[in-house]
User: Which sequence fits this backbone?
């Protein structure tokens, strides 16, 4: 006969406010097998956990039910509590009477009755629980970082500095990411390149970091500590071991195309490095625009290359690596200007976005740091900045704030005035959100010291007239219409998730939100972790983040990787499937169903010396999904922790109490 | 409180009882979010956590109806998002067949519903629950399939039907 203890948590007033916890505890003590039942203000607190331990000892409890919050929050906590008292952690069950009860119901009587039922369900289940024993699995102390922007670089550096090898995969030809495109950074007006490029050099020269640029992760298999990743190293057409980075080829290449790095404001060659400080300083041939690849002749670069590094025959290479942890640092995209028909929808040349402005004002950018109208190259004298373009817009399905735009627009206003002191700068805003260290002060500087005109309100339309852009909007503070004749308009377009974010998320098993940003394990307490063990998140792939936040989260993620790597071995989840060969008919339905190929057929020797074929689940490989169990016709498979008996007894308990 | 609760129970008219099998990665977390955003939903649903919707054996559903509950919801991750890659597809295939069987034996297949709810869709969970409750409410009590009245497992249904 089981000896069960039930512990009902008040969660302050979170539960006790709606559920009569005293009555619940009283009722539960009448339940079959329940030896003791009591309530306490905060079960998860130290005194709360001590009560559980003390009662296990005093009443010789062999099973425990904690009725409190969601197991997703505190299952681990209470498993450890009972474990400390010598009880197998899998003999503890939780009843979720907060998220599923007190927080969703208002009627006290109803919620109280429901709480009792929920706890009875857990009691019914725990009765059937058996001790489970995790296995130890080895781990590979090598990390993969996906994305070579500031976040990914910081993460790679931190992990490498502890001494672990890191593979840094970046799909562009150079590391550096978005930050490499910026001119100055807020709120200090540091030159972005001056703080970024030394870091790029650190990454390049760290012996523990292997940089794979122009490469993409193709597949990820395995599990925490033991991932197997396939990385496609795209054909660069330039031999990295021979190239000296002299740049001869790029000068002589006859084919000019729009530069992605300069967002179409400048040109690059078909053989190119995206920007002068690129790491590695080895060009790639963009085969879609190379004359040799498209028309069959040219080979100018090969002729001029003094190092004989050009190789048109190079093919994509697939690299397979075993890693123990993966950091996703895949960054963000900007929303498409064509979305905003009221602002010209990408048709007006002199309506640009914030990132284009960065390129233009950057001394090493396409205009060498001179602000010029893309249409006629003239210096703009009146510039209108529009914030919140595509952010905080329910109609576009993008209700969130992009967080950076207030700050970089203030920066743009300042930089404009520094470049063209007599320029007129207007900023349309909805609210100014400058919550960060020295952020508010920075915006005030733009307004007070530099004389940027901030207008609270929306721009309803932009149209072209006599070579000018007419910006029509409302000033909601003055309650009047405004019309500004502008030479150039800069849209602070929304930061959005990468267009292929879902693909990456599915490959790595990362959940994502309605905006396709990656979801952390817990928004507050586990902000760089992920539900998929061994996968960590950093930077703007989670939500819009500025540089300080990205760097901080990168260091956070790398600490988590190092904590993981500090383990001798990993403890596997014992909730795996098990096949009873006596019942198995060898139909092998399970083999095809198992997404992890965890089920194998083997030959075993019987006591009579004969050999016999038999199916077996490989413990370390089984993830415990239960697909095989639910499909095994002879019922030969059980899933530890979620056996048919456990689930049936929950159903029965519910049916008789509901 | 005790007496008050009992009268409360007596007063109750028939209300459908529904069991929801939720996968622990998406839908269970989605239901948690419904809770933490304090969105209320009808009290007619109880949640049973499974690792994956693919773990749900059709027998669980039959057993649930047999023991007197009026409806079942099975919810997993969205297509493509299954923590175990394809468990939700397996589940859906199974339930398509189960629905046909239920129809064949005369049980309205609307008693057993299937949905995709992600961890960030707290609102959707509340909506799905309300819909299932309304559908089953319209169908009335599950009299056809549950064990005879007075039987241990049909007690709830019996008293509710007075
Ligand atoms: S599905 Fe069941 S019976 Fe068929 S091979 Fe797998 S374990 Fe054996
Ligand atoms: S529980 Fe899932 S992972 Fe484990 S053997 Fe069965 S199908 Fe494979």
Assistant:
């Amino acid at each position: 006969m089981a000896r069960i203890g039930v512990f009902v948590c008040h969660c302050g007033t979170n539960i006790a406010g709606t559920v009569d916890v005293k009555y619940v505890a009283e009722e539960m003590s009448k339940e079959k097998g329940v030896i003791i039942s009591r309530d306490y203000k905060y079960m998860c607190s130290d005194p709360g956990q001590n009560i559980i331990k003390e009662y296990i000892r005093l009443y010789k409890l062999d099973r425990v039910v904690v009725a409190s919050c969601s197991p997703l929050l505190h299952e681990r906590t209470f498993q450890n509590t009972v474990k400390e008292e010598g009880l197998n952690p899998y003999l503890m069950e939780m009843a979720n009477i907060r998220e599923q009860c007190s927080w969703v119901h208002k009627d006290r009587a109803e919620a109280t009755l429901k709480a009792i039922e929920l706890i009875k369900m857990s009691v019914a289940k725990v009765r059937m629980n058996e001790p489970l024993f995790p296995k130890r699995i080895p781990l590979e102390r090598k990390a993969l970082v996906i994305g070579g922007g500031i976040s990914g670089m910081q993460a790679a550096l931190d992990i490498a500095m502890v001494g672990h090898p890191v593979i840094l995969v970046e799909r562009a030809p150079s590391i550096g990411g978005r930050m490499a495109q910026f001119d100055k950074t807020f709120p200090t007006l540091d030159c972005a390149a001056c703080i970024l490029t030394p870091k790029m050099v650190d990454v390049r020269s760290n012996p523990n970091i292997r940089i794979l640029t122009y490469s993409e992760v193709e597949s990820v298999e395995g599990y925490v500590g033991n991932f197997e990743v396939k990385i496609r190293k795209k054909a660069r057409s330039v031999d990295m071991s021979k190239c000296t980075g002299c740049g001869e080829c790029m000068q002589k290449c006859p084919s000019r195309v729009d530069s992605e790095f300069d967002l179409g404001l400048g040109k690059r060659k078909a053989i190119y490095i995206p920007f002068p400080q690129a790491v590695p300083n080895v060009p790639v041939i963009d085969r879609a625009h190379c004359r040799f690849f498209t028309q069959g002749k040219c080979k100018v670069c090969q002729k001029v290359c003094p190092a004989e590094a050009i190789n048109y025959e190079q093919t994509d290479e697939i690299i397979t690596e075993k890693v123990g942890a993966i950091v996703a640092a895949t960054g963000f995209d900007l929303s498409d200007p064509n979305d905003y028909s009221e602002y010209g929808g990408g048709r007006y040349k002199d309506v640009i976005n914030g990132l284009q402005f960065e390129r233009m004002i950057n001394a090493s950018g396409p205009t060498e740091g001179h602000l010029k109208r893309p249409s006629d190259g003239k210096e703009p004298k009146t510039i209108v900045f529009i914030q919140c373009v595509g952010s905080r817009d329910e109609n576009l399905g993008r209700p969130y704030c992009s967080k950076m735009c207030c700050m970089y627009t203030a920066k743009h206003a300042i930089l404009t005035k520094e470049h063209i002191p007599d320029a007129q700068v207007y900023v349309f805003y909805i609210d100014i959100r400058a919550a960060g260290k020295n952020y508010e002060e920075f915006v005030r500087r733009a307004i007070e010291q530099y004389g940027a005109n901030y207008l609270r309100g929306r721009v309803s339309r932009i149209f072209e007239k006599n070579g000018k852009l007419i910006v029509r909007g409302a000033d909601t503070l003055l309650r009047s219409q405004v019309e500004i004749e502008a030479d150039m308009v800069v849209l602070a377009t929304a930061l959005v998730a990468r267009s292929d974010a879902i693909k990456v998320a599915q490959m790595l098993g990362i959940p994502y939100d309605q905006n396709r940003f990656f979801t952390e394990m817990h928004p507050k307490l586990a902000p760089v972790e992920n539900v998929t063990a061994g996968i960590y998140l950093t930077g703007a792939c989670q939500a819009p983040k500025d540089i300080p936040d990205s760097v901080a989260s990168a260091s956070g993620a790398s600490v988590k990787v190092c904590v993981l790597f500090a383990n001798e071995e990993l403890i596997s989840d014992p909730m795996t499937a098990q096949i009873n060969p006596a019942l198995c008919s060898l139909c092998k339905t399970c083999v095809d169903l198992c997404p992890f190929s965890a089920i194998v057929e083997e030959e075993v020797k019987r006591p009579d010396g004969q050999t016999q074929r038999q199916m077996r689940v490989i413990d370390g490989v089984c993830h415990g999904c239960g697909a095989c169990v639910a499909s095994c016709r002879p019922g030969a498979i059980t899933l530890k922790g979620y056996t048919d008996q456990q689930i049936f007894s929950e159903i029965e308990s519910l049916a008789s109490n509901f | 409180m005790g007496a008050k609760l009992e009268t409360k129970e007596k007063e109750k008219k028939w209300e459908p009882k529904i069991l929801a099998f939720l996968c622990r990665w998406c839908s269970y977390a989605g239901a948690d979010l419904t809770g933490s955003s304090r969105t209320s939903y009808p009290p007619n649903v109880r949640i049973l956590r499974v690792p994956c919707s693919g773990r749900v054996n059709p027998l669980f559903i039959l057993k649930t109806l047999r023991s007197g509950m009026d409806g079942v919801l099975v919810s997993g991750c969205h297509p493509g998002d299954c923590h175990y890659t394809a468990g939700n597809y397996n589940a859906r295939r199974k339930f398509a067949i189960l629905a046909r069987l239920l129809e064949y034996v005369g049980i309205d297949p609307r008693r057993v519903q299937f949905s995709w709810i992600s961890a960030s869709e707290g609102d959707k969970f509340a909506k799905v629950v309300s819909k299932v409750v309304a559908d089953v409410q319209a169908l009335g009590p599950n009299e056809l399939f549950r064990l005879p009245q007075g039987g241990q497992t049909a007690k709830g249904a019996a008293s509710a039907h007075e």
